[in-house]
Design goal:
The protein has 394 residues and is mainly β. Helices cover 4% and strands 48% of the residues. Strand 20 (214-218) and strand 21 form a beta hairpin. This is YncE family protein.
Length: 394
């Protein structure tokens, strides 16, 4: 058994994942690829219940509470904020959910070319590439109608990222000679915005994900593992081991239930990552990858969609595909990186895959791994997130 398998098994023994309630309700928020609109979809009744008009097409990020969706409009100069209408109330061994109508908040986070929106440790950091500025907000303030942000400037505009951790901020450092290239590392800023310590090198920085309190950032030569420490964030470089195929990770996903990460490895591979033991387990895909996503309910698995139109179940323990389902017509990865291609979200016992060229969402049962329904959505449904739970009175 590899180190990732040992870590995951130990975590599951220590804290098993609760079974999915059959009377949970789920909402999907779906961004159109071409039009500046985000639609709310009732998964149970397979229908659109609301549509929100924005300034430009958006990428979506769900807050950890499930209360907010951040709609980053890189060409619209703003991050719009949608109240999902799903409010969780903790009751020890379970959460209850109160449902209200979803709504577009008046508060928005404005700036030039927002790309990366990262929520961690109770705050949300938005990096504006064309300014080289981070703006930090809180969910509570946005819900109260206050978009006032704390601003932190970097040395130059660049394709960057920032992550909050306690009172500190981890932020990318632009290439000193050519800021249009990928960042060269990260630095830690204190509550006043001052740099703490030295540069933490991370050549060709691109890709981040969190698992619990830990954050991992991808580099050309390895990953940075960042965790809270007594004196501020502790940053450790974890190199790719010898013997890995040529390539690197540029996209990462994590799972808050267990401490693992999955990254791409080039265009046709995945890698399971134990950033504490330095284990990188590589798997080659049958064809090029389009998108992949974690499963919060079944943390042993992730899902990957490939350009031949197939959805695959990826076993993180053994770094292998254990099930495949032909789902759509092919979506070639030739062409522009931003062409409309499927995206994945997990909604309890359902895996939902957008099929933008057919104008539908495809629903796959997570246990049987068969397609169970399609949901028609106007336009070209593209990016999506899922939020839900058991409502009061269940």
């Amino acid at each position: 058994m590899n180190t990732i398998a040992r870590l995951l098994v130990a975590t599951l023994v220590a804290g098993p994942v609760a079974a999915q309630d059959h009377d949970e309700v789920w909402r999907l928020f779906v961004a159109d690829h071409a039009d500046p609109v985000v639609r709310a979809v009732d998964l149970e009744h397979a229908k659109v219940i609301e549509a929100f008009t924005l300034s430009a097409p958006a990428a979506l990020r769900l807050s950890s509470s499930g209360r907010l969706v951040y709609a980053a409009q890189r060409d619209g100069g703003a991050v719009a904020v949608i109240d999902t209408g799903v409010a969780r109330e903790e009751h020890g061994d379970h959460d209850d959910v109160t449902l209200t109508a979803p709504r577009l908040l008046e508060a928005r986070i404005e700036g030039a070319k927002p790309v990366h929106v990262v929520e961690h440790d109770g705050r949300t950091a938005v990096f504006f590439d064309d300014e080289g500025v981070v703006r930090i907000v809180t969910e509570a303030a946005l819900l109260a109608g206050d978009p006032t942000a704390t601003e932190v400037a970097t040395a130059a505009p660049h394709h960057g990222v920032a992550v909050t951790m306690g009172a500190h901020l981890i932020v990318s450092v632009p290439h000193p000679e050519d800021p249009t290239k990928l960042p060269i590392g990260v630095e830690v800023r204190d509550a006043g915005g001052a740099v703490v310590g030295e540069l933490h090198a991370c050549p060709d920085l691109h890709g981040e994900a969190s698992a619990g309190s830990a954050v991992v950032i991808a580099c050309a030569t390895g990953v940075l593992r960042i965790e809270p420490g007594d004196a501020g964030p502790a940053v450790v470089f974890v190199p790719y081991p010898a013997g890995m195929p040529e390539g690197k990770t540029t996209t990462l996903i994590g799972n808050d239930t267990v401490r693992w990460f999955v990254g791409n490895w080039g265009r046709d591979g995945l890698v399971s990552i134990d950033a504490w033991e330095g284990a990188f387990d590589h798997a080659r895909l049958p064809v090029r990858r389009v998108h992949f996503a974690a499963d919060p309910e079944r943390p042993r698995f992730a899902y990957v969609f490939t350009e031949d139109g197939a959805l695959h179940r990826f076993d993180v323990l053994n770094a292998e595909i254990v099930a495949s389902l032909p789902l759509t017509e092919p979506y070639s990865m030739d062409g522009h990186w931003s062409d409309p291609r499927p995206r994945i979200a997990v909604a309890g016992d359902a895996i939902v895959v957008s099929d933008p060229l057919k104008g539908v969402l495809r629903v796959v049962d997570a246990e049987s791994f068969v397609e169970t329904a399609t949901i028609a959505v106007p336009g070209k449904p593209f990016a999506l997130v899922a939020v839900g739970g058991a409502p009061h009175g269940h």
